[in-house]
Write a structure and sequence with these properties.
It is built from 5 helices and 8 strands; from the N terminus they run βαββαβαβαββαβ. The protein has helices at residues 9-18, 51-56, 67-78, 95-104, 144-159, and strands at 3-6, 25-33, 37-41, 65-66, 86-93, 114-123, 128-136, 164-166. It is globular.
Length: 167
C-alpha cells in the first residue's frame, strides 16, 4: 500500500471527470460533499435491467458500476463555481486488467486469489490523496502483488502526466 499526494489537483480532476482516463475502473463506493452529501453504492442491481440489457452490458461478469457510467453524474455534482467540500471514491481494477497485471508481472497469484486491487481517491478541501490497496482471498505474507499494484499505479499516473508526491 502506498499513499500519494496529487500535486496538481485541477489537472487530476480534469482527467478524472472529463476524460476516459479512469474508465477501466469499477466504482465500489463514493461520496461527494457539496451542499449535501451524495453517497454512491457502486454495487450493480441487475434486476433493474431486462434480460437483453443484462446480456448486452455483460452484467453477469461484474459486480460494480463502471466509472465511465457514473462519471457524468459525478461531474454534475462537482462542477460549478464552488469547489466541493470533499469527496472520496473507491475504485477497483476490473478483472481483465487484474489478469493482465498478473501475467505481466509473472505473479504466482491467480485471478481467483485476488478479491480486488483498489485505488482510493480522497479530496478533503486541503489536498487530493490516492491510496492503493490489494485484497486477496487467501492469507499470505507474499507482498509481491501489492508491490506490483503500487508500481502500476505510479506508472499509470506518470503516463497520464499526473504529478504526485509519495507520502
Amino acid at each position: 500500500m502506498i499513499s500519494l499526494q496529487i500535486e496538481d489537483v485541477k489537472a487530476f480532476m480534469n482527467k478524472l471527470l472529463l476524460t476516459p482516463t479512469f474508465d477501466a475502473f469499477w466504482v465500489v463506493e463514493g461520496s461527494i460533499v457539496t451542499y449535501n452529501t451524495f453517497h454512491i453504492d457502486g454495487h450493480l442491481k441487475p434486476e433493474y435491467y431486462s434480460k437483453e440489457e443484462q446480456e448486452a452490458l455483460k452484467l453477469s461478469q461484474r459486480r460494480f458500476s463502471r466509472w465511465q457510467d457514473l462519471r457524468p453524474f459525478c461531474l454534475e455534482l462537482i462542477k460549478g463555481k464552488r469547489t466541493p467540500l470533499g469527496f472520496r471514491f473507491t475504485f477497483q481494477l476490473s478483472p481483465e486488467h487484474v489478469e493482465k497485471l498478473l501475467l505481466r508481472t509473472e505473479s504466482a497469484f491467480s485471478l481467483s486469489d485476488v478479491t480486488g486491487l483498489l485505488l482510493n481517491i480522497r479530496y478533503d478541501g486541503t489536498g487530493l490523496f490516492c491510496t492503493t490497496a490489494a485484497s486477496l482471498s487467501l492469507f499470505t505474507m507474499d507482498k509481491s502483488l501489492e508491490h506490483a499494484w503500487d508500481e502500476a499505479i505510479q506508472r499509470f499516473f506518470g503516463r497520464q502526466e499526473l504529478a504526485f508526491t509519495l507520502l
